[in-house]
Design brief:
homodimer; mainly alpha; DNA-binding
DNA sequence: CGTCGATAGATGCATATGCATCTAAATCGG
DNA sequence: CCGATTTAGATGCATATGCATCTATCGACG
């Protein structure tokens, strides 16, 4: 009946704590980069997500699942991006309540510019920290975690 | 000269993306719990960090390294906690500029209450998602990442 | 010592965020 | 088909956040 000296609950708490702190540490560095003088990190996240969207158009509520922001905050964030000419709104054709979003050309270009720098910064932080195999394993574990958590509706 | 079809830079970006999204997904669930009606998650984080501090007292600037908040925001967050009687301030004895922080009894009790529930929620999210071995590996990798990132002055 | 640059925190001010609520459109039940 | 419920998004309002700046202290150096 010997245990490994650590309860499952405690292990989960420590794992989350460690994941969270790592995220804070990396995020701090990334936010400090010069790219995020032009757009806040949440705003960039929206531009990035739109850039990955195959059809180009994305519903506001789908976007909201992706981002750590309340519905109202996202609504206003998008309003700001629209005022800056970075995104375009359109009423959803199949749902009169819905709003579709798309990057403008200026938005797509800005995303690419910042994205390039951002990716370089990320690589500069993760590269020296973890081997390629470790990064792959970390990616696998966090994907698994995300899908499991997201699955419980 | 065959590669595995993925550049190091791209791998790092995907790894970070995955880590970040997992953090968002988990954080969303945790924030929705009833515990965080009483204190915001950042506020809880401060109470938690103070509760782990061996001497009980912690410098404000050390606390700031831990939390994803600007110096001024932390200053005001602590001010709020003090007004609510959850923490106590003291001038640092060895540094006339510094401020030391400590939980009050009420603060310690609140932290424990919320902490219990929080840990249960975390366990409920990570437990079904990852095996114990996977959690340990995730903890190891994120610790390694954090230390590497934090190390660069 | 006295001056100068650096560091710890606090504060004014503009902006971002979240909660509660509102409107409009879709969906459900009879 | 109509009223009731649910869902998507917008908005008023209070609060939280960040940037720039200010004050006070520390530490280095002449």
């Amino acid at each position: 009946m010997a245990t490994d000296g650590e309860s499952p609950v405690r292990l989960a708490a420590e794992t989350w704590e460690s994941l969270f702190r790592a995220q804070v540490a990396v995020m701090r560095k990334l936010q400090a980069g010069p790219a995020f003088k032009k757009v806040a990190i949440n705003e960039y996240d929206v531009l990035f997500t739109l850039s990955r969207c195959p059809s180009g158009w994305l519903r506001l509520n789908e976007l909201n699942d992706h981002v750590l922001l309340s519905q109202s905050s996202l609504s206003r964030l998008v309003e700001r991006l629209e005022k800056r000419g970075l995104v375009e709104r359109m009423a959803a054709p199949e749902d009169g309540r819905g709003v579709l979003l798309k990057l403008t050309d200026a938005g797509a270009e800005l995303q690419k510019d910042i994205g390039r720098e951002h990716v370089r910064d990320i690589s500069g932080l993760l590269g020296p920290a973890l081997t390629a195999a470790e990064q792959k394993e970390l990616r696998r574990l966090t994907e698994k975690l995300r899908h499991s958590v997201g699955a419980r509706h």
